[in-house]
Amino acid sequence: MSKASEFSVLLLVLIGVLVLMSLLNGSNFLSLNNFQSMAFQMPELGILSLAMMITMLTSGINLSIIATANLAGIIMAMIMTSGIAPETTGPGGVGLVLIAIIAGLFVSTLVGVLNGALIAFVDMSPILATLGTMIMVSGIAIVLTKGYVISGFPVAMQVIGNGNVGGIPVPILIFLACASIMGVILQHTPLGMRIYLIGSNPVACHYSGVNNRSVILRTYLISGLYSGIASVVMISRFNSAKADYGESYLLLTVLASVLGGVSAAGGFGRVSGLVLALIILQMISSGLNLMGVSNFLTIALWGMVLIFVMVVKYLIERYQERRYMT
Amino acid sequence: MKKIFSYHETYVLIAVVILSIVITLVNPDFLTLENLFGLLRSYALMGTFAVGVLFVLISGGIDISFTAIATITGYTVAVLLLKAGDKLNIVLIFLIAGLIGVALGMINAAIIYFFRIPSIITTIATMNIYYGILTVLSQGKWLYGFPQWFSDFAEINVFTLTNRGGTPYGFSLITLIWFAAMLLGWFILRYTIIGRSVYAMGGNMASAHRAGFNLMGLHLFVYSSMGFMAGIASVIQALLVQTVAPNALVGKELDVIAAVVLGGASLSGGTGSMFGTFLGVSLIAILGNGLTLMHVPSFWYKVFIGLTILLSVGASTYRRRLFSRQRVIIEEEVR
Questions:
Q1: Does the beta carbon of B112 lie under 8 angstroms from any beta carbon of chain A?
Q2: B169 membership: H or E segment, kind and range
């Protein structure tokens, strides 16, 4: 299926959901308030989905993103609550928060490098390597916290998750920045080109002179870094960190990526599709939430949307194939 | 002798033995029948799931939805037990749970086969659908207070011994159900045409199709076997804890898959054995039990499980790479 038609299928679904939810909820759904709250909720899942997406493009998967995010969050939380008075490091504790974020991102990148090394140099399958690191990293997070919540961050940290810039929530700005950077990496750099190549045909990619191992390593490094960024948004919104936050996000990130047109076999998918898919998922969940529908029904509905989109794609593909044959 | 060391199972067995020796040296309580029988009883749940997961992995697919299937079968059975507990018996309970599991597994198989959607995506979607709908319908309520015969059944031992303190313990009937499931799976995979076809399909789907295997039938068989085992496992869970909660099982699916993979099944399909799967589950069970007996704080558990997976899978991948390199050298020499 051509990229244009895939994008338009998603756009049609998006408009359909928008119209349906507006009809069902009336002006409540179209209010500024609702859009603002959607903009606060989407970024966590969004950034994590970007972290998942880039590995799926190489026909891999990263099951450890949530565990990585939680470990990074706990490191950041431990530094921010280590007893150093935040006021001494600048207004609202900016200095302390910066140090904490740098440390957290460093740890998450390190986990990414570990994943990449296991997959690229030990030749482990991505599912198994990241399943192993997922269990181990979340274990380390539990050991560090003994299962407790760490809470109470400096003011500067809370601004990241709850602040506004001219009415636009800070988290959505962070998400847009992350998505744009990912888009540039994938569409306009040699690395992005090679990521798509590996996903389509690793052998051909290797024979055309690409160092597959280095590309895989860098892919998982970026995935780990993005998990860390997601963690910054997540813990500042909750004003706390814990070893098992957001575990239900893991499979949702796969769902969002696939819905956005990322092929599970690798090689296809764009950031723009993923962003549309995320908006669709968020509108369904916010709309149903306004109607007072249970969260769990929303989860079931997301599953149905995923299967529906996959079936439609399959049927379109088959139709086009047939037309091509005759 | 050389042949023995080409099996993945040998290495897992060595790991299990070494681990057992270390734990016994630290705490002799480990190697008592009482402890081992207890372990075999409490890991019957994971073990029964693992039988179904093995089928799916050998066929070259993966199933994430089995915990959600088990949640539905377990909940249905629990409602039946509370509504009409006196008219039912244990065989009927297992049968009902198994059949609902088969039906839900067939839905998975149909979506995977007819629309060519990768199994991991299909089952992630159906997991969300099954689990979401059940949680809405059940309103998250826990069910307990099952009929007396149901709680009595859980305490039946095949044979009973008494420990030094005078407390009786024994080999539970629940363990026997797990063993029966393994035996059935082992027989099907090893000695029946359909079992061998599952290996063929997992080895190379395209070749199997060209060779005339009925892929639709095989898909239905594999995923409904998974569903059946999920149904059986859900009754085992209800027997073990005498409570059915909508959120008790979902989230454990990756742990079970990890155990089966430890036992030598490959995610790319075509390989894996029932004995290996038993060893994989044993390794996880012994690791967890051993840490407790050695008084290691329980939050270290996950770190060790993760390390074990990385080391074991890493080592076997490395070994396979050496092996394939050797083969290339031999072929060169032949030329």
A1: no
A2: strand B168-172
Q: State the SS3 of chain A.
A: CCHHHHHHHHHHHHHHHHHHHHHHHCHHHHCHHHHHHHHHHHHHHHHHHHHHHHHHHCCCCCCCHHHHHHHHHHHHHHHHCCCCCHHHHCHHHHHHHHHHHHHHHHHHHHHHHHHHHHHHCCCCCHHHHHHHHHHHHHHHHHHHHCCCCEECCCHHHHHHHHCEECCEEHHHHHHHHHHHHHHHHHHHCHHHHHHHHHHHCHHHHHHCCCCHHHHHHHHHHHHHHHHHHHHHHHHHHHCEECCCCCCCHHHHHHHHHHHCCCCCCCCCCCHHHHHHHHHHHHHHHHHHHHCCCCHHHHHHHHHHHHHHHHHHHHHHHHHHHHHHHC
What's the N-to-C CA distance of chain A in angstroms?
17
* Partner residue opposite A303 with nearest CB, options B116, B128, B261: B128
- CA–CA distances in Å: residue A91 to residues A81, A84, A96: 16, 14, 10
pLDDT for position B131: 93
Say whether residue A142 is in contact with chain B using an 8 A CB cutoff.
yes
Does B123 reach chain A within 8 Å, measured CB to CB? no
Q: What is the SS3 assignment for B297? A: coil
Residue of A53, A111, A124, A135 to mutate when probing chain B, most B C-beta within 10 A: A135
SS (H, E, C) B106-160: HHHHHHHHHHCCCHHHHHHHHHHHHHHHHHHHHCCCCEECCCHHHHHHHHCEEEE
Determine how β-strand A164-165 pairs with β-strand A168-169. antiparallel
CA dihedral B40, B43, B44, B48 (to 10 degrees): -130
Which of chain B's residues have a Cβ under 8 Å away from the Cβ of A247? 251
A129 with B306: Cβ contact below 8 A: no
Whether residue A326 is predicted with pLDDT greater than 70 in this model: the reply is: no
Query: pTM, whole model, 2 decimals?
Result: 0.87
A139 contacts in chain B (CB < 8 Å): 299-306
Asked if the Cβ–Cβ distance from A310 to B121 is below 8 Å, we say: yes
Q: What is the CATH number of the domain that holds A105?
A: 1.10.3470
Domain membership of residue A140 as a residue range? 3-325
Residues A160 and A279: their CA atoms lie apart, in Å, by 21
pLDDT, residue A254, reads 87
Segment B277-287 shows an average pLDDT of: 94
Give burial (CB, 10 Å; 0-12/13-18/19+) of A94: middle
Q: What is the mean pLDDT of residues A132-143?
A: 93
Do residues A145 and A74 make contact, with C-beta atoms less than 8 angstroms apart? yes
Number of folded domains in chain A? 1
Rounded distance between C-alpha atoms, residue B297 and residue B291, angstroms? 8
Residue of A nearest to B121 (CA): A255
Residue A217: pLDDT band (50, 70, 90) is very high
Is the pLDDT at B267 greater than 60, yes or no?
yes
- Cβ distance B35 to B289 under 8 Å? yes
Chain centroid, CA A155 distance in Å: 26
Tell me if A314 and B122 make a contact (CB, 8 A cut-off): no
